[in-house]
Amino acid sequence: MTNQKPTATSRLKQDYMRLKRDPVPYITAEPLPSNILEWHYVIHGPEDSPYHGGYYHGTLLFTKEFPFKPPSIYMITPNGRFKTNKRLCLSISDFHPDTWNPAWSVATILTGLLSFMLETTPTLGSCESTTYEKRRYARQSLDFNMKNEVFQELFPEVCEEIKERLAKIEEHRKANAAATNNNTTATAGATANGTAAAAAGASPDGLLDVDGADGPNPVTGAGADESNNIWHSLYTNLIVLIGFVIFALIVHYVIKSMNIE
Fold first, then answer.
1. 154: which of 11, 30, 237, 238 fits an S-S bond (Cβ 3.0–4.6 Å)?
2. What is this structure's pTM?
3. Cis (ω within 30 of 0) for the bond into 67?
């Protein structure tokens, strides 16, 4: 009688040690403490993709026949690329046991999943969405994952990252709200001050004094008289000038007539 451990358990433990030693870029993975056949992963959206800033939680469900049979692959977090809680049809999943290679590890599976996520090739379990929608899902993934107890239990470090990001987002939101309120208050204050000043400088007949309560009114009062005086002087000078020109013409005509005679 032998004490040899089941092949799947032994192989998955080896894969786990390899992942800890050589992590897959943009991916974190942990098996359930109570069941090594159920793995949970988190894909961190790459910088040059519409998933940037998002955290995408999913599961790999292995059978006892692993590594001779591929796992089922699911995505839990809404993402715009894969349907949630649906088996994904990939060459590395149980939809295609004919293309499965027993040499492939958990790291290989997760790398292939990320690669396929960044593509647009349709498959069973995939969905279509715009770049805008994918970015919106990326923002929403923060709150979504924090509501999942298994996610919080398995990925405490990722949760700390998300909490810090949510705190920064909240600070930014409050700062924007405060700036908006200040602008609104300043605008309202300027409007109120302008109205009060206009009211203070209003003449009895309802005309506003735009220069203030103590300044001249541009329409009535001293200001109006000064303006009228200027125009009167201009008219007077113009009349004098015209009269002088006419007088000169008459003199010139008289002298010319006398010379002719």
1. 30
2. 0.69
3. yes
Amino acid at 51: Y
Residues annotated as part of the active site: 89
Cα dihedral 97→98→103→108 (10° resolution): -60
Per-residue pLDDT of the chain (261 residues; tens, 9 = 90+): 445 557 999 999 999 999 999 999 999 999 999 999 999 999 999 999 999 999 999 999 999 999 999 999 999 999 999 999 999 999 999 999 999 999 999 999 999 999 999 999 999 999 999 999 999 999 999 999 999 999 999 999 999 999 999 999 999 999 999 888 888 777 666 665 655 554 445 444 443 333 333 444 444 444 445 555 666 666 677 776 787 678 777 767 656 666 554
- Measured on CA atoms in the order 226, 232, 235, 239, is the torsion positive or negative? negative
**Terminal alpha carbon distance of the chain:** 160
